[in-house]
Amino acid sequence: MEINAYGSYKTNSADYSLNAQKSGGILNMQDFLNLLVAQIANQDVMNPMDNTEFVAQLAQFSSLQAMSDLTELALQGQATSLIGKNVVVADYNSFGELVVQEGIVQRVAIHSGTAKLYVNDTEYDYSNVMEVKEA
Fold first, then answer.
1. In the chain, how many domains are there?
2. Are residues 43 and 62 in the same domain?
3. How far apart are CA 34 and CA 74, in angstroms?
4. pLDDT band with cut points at 50, 70 and 90 for residue 19
5. pLDDT tens readout for residues 64-99
6. 87: Cβ–Cβ under 8 A, 6 or more apart, which residues?
7. What is the pTM of this model?
8. Gap between the terminal Cα atoms of the chain
9. Residues 85 and 132: beta-carbon distance below 8 Å
10. Rounded distance, CA 95 to CA 47, Å?
11. 50 neighbors 39 (Cβ within 8 angstroms)
12. What is the torsional sign of CA 130, 21, 68, 28?
């Protein structure tokens, strides 16, 4: 079996293409399990891999997933801590011009894990916050 850095591998029976880039560049548990099954299915039958290697890989991926979840929760916590604070936010308008607004964060909504802040009745991503000022 030949695996190269360009995202494809060949076996004796078929030619497969792998897509290493997912939307957002994030691999999930299903992707890991698919790779694990492919690894088991294509291993050398005369020299199989040790089960402890698979368990170690699964544990490593699980801890990486947990750290990723904690990071997401921390960002959501930071966003909600801005409620009632004076912030400067920037975003591009429909003409491609950068528009900078200053105001009090009225509320925070979390949609699909992404924090949205409302400043002057306008929705902004948490990543659009440029500065936090004293009230």
1. 2
2. no
3. 29
4. very low
5. 888 888 988 898 899 999 999 999 999 998 999 999
6. 102, 103, 104, 105, 117, 119, 129, 130, 131, 132, 133
7. 0.56
8. 63
9. yes
10. 61
11. no
12. positive
What size, in residues, is the chain?
A: 135
Phi, then psi, of 62 in degrees rounded to 5: -60, -40
* Residues 44 and 56 placed together within one structural domain of the fold: no
Report residue 2: phi and psi, to 5°.
Answer: -115, 125
The tokens 């088991």 sit on which residue? 40
Is residue 80 within 8 Å of residue 116, measured between CB atoms?
no
CA-based nearest residue to 24, from 113, 108, 109: 113
Domain span at 38: 1-49
**Which amino acid, 78?**
Q
